[in-house]
Hints:
The protein is mainly α. It has one domain (4-107). The chain has helices at 4-15, 19-22, 28-42, 47-66, 69-107. Helix 1 packs across helix 5 (69-107).
Amino acid sequence: MKNEKEIIENFDKIIGTNKSQKIDTSKFPLLLKIFEQFEEDMFVETQEYKELKQERQNIENRINSNFSNEQKQLFEEYWDTQNKMQSEIEKQIFLFGYLIRDELENEI
């Protein structure tokens, strides 16, 4: 991930730590590989997720029946960007969890 240093600095600002001076970011590629595996292989759909997925499919069907090809392409680009943004949020939350665990371990 390109912005791991920025995420650690943001963590420091929010939590009031100085992890950016102490943490070994060379461990992050392994940590992010664990995140990718978790995201791909360990997620189990809940009933609420299944319902939301069906709702999204219904909306997508309505869009496909009403949008022109140009509008569909534009919406697809929008959706791809939205997915990338969501992925960045999820990575940050995952890394914050790691940093919190590390901070708690130091306090105990």
